[in-house]
From TrEMBL:
InterPro entries: EgtD, EgtD_Methyltrsf_superfamily, MeTrfase_dom, MeTrfase_EgtD-like, SAM-dependent_MTases_sf. The lineage of its organism: Bacteria, Pseudomonadati, Pseudomonadota, Gammaproteobacteria, Lysobacterales. GO terms for biological process: methylation. This is L-histidine N(Alpha)-methyltransferase. SUPFAM superfamilies: S-adenosyl-L-methionine-dependent methyltransferases. Residues 19-318 form the Histidine-specific methyltransferase SAM-dependent domain. It comes from Luteimonas notoginsengisoli.
């Protein structure tokens, strides 16, 4: 029988969330952090997004990972400690752990305890030789890495899904600096990045016909109401996602359908009718753009793999 690996639990407390939300609502324009999308329901809805026909990112990245795995394994080298920022559903992780040569350990760092436990339980059962060392934490903050029993040759940070694009450039550089630290001298980082292309392809991915993305965005408010006692009226807001070509990113907002007040921790915030609160960025990259961010973190792009249409890329970064 498989025993669940020991969990390092640094999950954010309701006080952390309240602090972030109060700070975001005090800004002009108002802003909520997208990292709070991923409670249990939010993680389920994100999984559902990845199955929508318009959301090409996951489908293409999985195929690309599969097609490029031999080259990735050769570039990464044997006996890696794989450290994943976010654990997702584990589909990409499974391909990576299967394809790398003799991986020693796997550490997913994931903010949602339910998503972390579900994926870790499955992976631990499937990969008996790989020590699984889960950490429940916000990976945007420094996280001490657990040490595997069998020494690894190097660390490989795995950050698929173009999740880097959910951060502003300044935050992305901070995250890349954290990766620089985690990977050590001989390590690397394997990033999945969505590439710039026609808005006709990008915009529908964030406005699917079934409305799953809209439910995902609105779930942020339901989650905050439950966890920090705010009183957002879910019928009072609607999802809006637009591709801003100059910035090369999708900008997602919750737009107030009417003038209304929202209370958080006894503080009242007024929304005008039509006021747009920013909730997520999804940056789309060019190679020079990514190289510039990496350089600010002391990293170089040393290998690149794209799908045949150049819609999505995998990039290996090293010091
Ligand atoms: C997780 N992240 C990379 C997704 C994205 O594409 O920005 C989250 C998402 N938001 C709406 N749809 C998907």
């Amino acid at each position: 029988m498989s025993v669940l690996p020991e969990l390092t639990d640094l999950q954010p407390t309701p006080d952390d969330i309240t602090g972030d939300v109060l700070a975001g609502l005090a800004r002009v324009p108002k802003r909520l952090p997208s990292k709070y999308f991923y409670d249990r329901r939010g993680s389920e809805l994100f999984e559902e997004i990845t199955r929508q026909p318009e959301y090409y990112l996951t489908r293409i990245e999985l195929a690309l990972l599969e097609a490029s795995m031999a080259g990735i394994a050769a570039a990464v080298g044997p006996r890696a400690h794989v450290v994943e920022y976010g654990s997702g559903s584990g589909r990409k992780t499974r391909l990576l752990l299967d394809g790398l040569e003799d991986p020693v350990a796997y550490t997913p760092i994931e903010i949602s305890r339910s998503a972390l436990l579900a994926s870790v339980e499955r992976l631990d059962r499937e990969f008996g030789d790989v020590e699984v060392l889960p950490v429940c934490a916000d990976f945007t903050q420094p996280v001490p890495l657990p040490q595997p029993r069998r020494p690894a040759d190097h660390a490989l940070v795995f950050f698929p899904g173009s999740t880097l694009g959910n951060f502003t450039d300044a935050e992305a550089v901070r995250l890349l600096r954290a990766m620089h630290q985690t990977m050590g001298d001989r390590g690397g980082a394997l990033l999945g990045i969505d590439l710039q292309k026609s808005p006709d392809i990008i915009e529908p991915a964030y406005n699917d016909a079934q409305g799953v993305t809209a439910r995902f965005t609105l779930n942020l408010l339901a989650r905050l109401n439950r966890d920090i006692g705010s009183d957002f009226d879910l019928d009072g807001f609607e999802h809006r996602a637009t591709y801003v070509e100059d910035a090369g990113r999708i900008e997602t907002f919750l737009v107030s359908r009417r003038a209304q007040d929202v209370t958080v921790e006894g503080r009242t915030f007024h929304f005008t009718a039509g006021e747009a609160m920013q909730v997520e960025y999804s940056q789309k990259y060019t190679d020079p753009g990514l190289a510039a961010l990496a350089a600010q973190a002391g990293l170089k792009v040393v290998e690149a793999w794209n799908d045949p249409q150049n819609w999505f890329g995998l990039r290996l970064l090293q010091r």
